[in-house]
TrEMBL record:
Belongs to the metallo-dependent hydrolases superfamily. TatD-type hydrolase family. This is Sec-independent protein translocase protein. Gene3D superfamilies: Metal-dependent hydrolases. InterPro entries: DNase_TatD-rel_CS, Metal_Hydrolase, TatD-like, TatD/YcfH-like. Keywords: Hydrolase, Metal-binding. A divalent metal cation 2 binds at H128, H152. It comes from Syntrophus aciditrophicus (strain SB).
Length: 255
């Protein structure tokens, strides 16, 4: 049993062979995939894909790169999409101060607004944090809503991970844990309890070894799970079961 807690099956990289990608994931032992929208069009496509495939679920939200185009109608449309039966989370939302494709002040304001929307919708949140650790923690710490969700593609150190855990969030580990220079992430994996971990691909990005350099896909989540199990000195099957149980609980997915 495995769950790929974060993929982007709606992106055009999968338009030519989406059926085969999902079939390969199932053959690799993946029981569920959560595909994550990043703007309104992609959110609609993610929901449609989730409706088409039994093992696929969707999350909807406006990525920090795209929040500069939010207008008065955006959140009404997000509410409509979030009401669809296979939508299991709101996200990915947050801050990206690496590329700064939306102004920082806009990112911060929209992050707060979307946290409140997720609270209204009673959905867990999927948090994007790139080069914005301090600001992300400040916003999450001051948020008065019910703190439940996932720090996607975790890129901080253990001190940050500990603060996220104390706030009630899961830590999601991407394929970068297999990279040679990912010592900080491996330290996080060793020290964070398995009961607080998820595994993800972020497909088509961040392809793990031994396929690094190729397009990522959900079947490859097993390589991340295998490395996490090794670091935690656990059997792969045990680690896969625990992380899948974590994902099924936060997303309310019944397997």
């Amino acid at each position: 049993m495995m769950i790929d807690s974060h993929a982007h099956l709606e992106l055009p990289e999968f338009d030519s062979d989406r059926d085969e990608v999902i079939a390969r994931a199932k053959e690799a032992g993946v029981d569920a995939i959560v595909t994550i929208g990043i703007d309104l069009d992609d959110c609609l496509k993610a929901v449609e894909i989730a409706d088409r495939y039994d093992m696929v679920y969707a999350a909807v939200g406006i990525h920090p790169h795209e929040v500069k185009v939010i207008d008065r109608q955006t959140y009404d449309r997000m509410r409509d999409l979030a009401a669809r039966p296979k939508v299991v989370a709101y996200g990915e939302i947050g801050l990206d101060f690496f590329r700064n494709l939306s102004p920082r002040d806009v990112q911060i304001r929209r992050f707060g607004e979307q946290l409140e929307l997720a609270q209204d919708l009673n959905l867990p949140v999927i948090i994007h944090d790139r080069e914005a650790h301090r600001e992300t923690l400040e916003i999450l710490s001051s948020w008065k809503g019910q703190r439940r969700g996932i720090i996607h593609c975790f890129s901080g150190d253990y001190a940050m991970a500990r603060k996220c855990l104390d706030l009630g969030f899961y830590i999601s580990i991407p394929g970068t844990v297999t990279f040679t220079k990912a010592d900080t992430l491996r330290d996080v994996v060793r020290r964070v309890p398995a009961e607080s971990l998820l595994v993800e691909t972020d497909a088509p990005f961040l392809t793990p070894e031994p396929h690094r350099g190729k397009r990522n896909e959900s079947a490859y989540v097993k390589y991340t799970a295998m490395r996490v199990a090794e670091l935690k000195e656990m059997k792969f099957e045990e680690l896969a079961e625990i992380t899948s149980r974590n994902a099924s609980e936060i997303f309310s997915i019944k397997l």
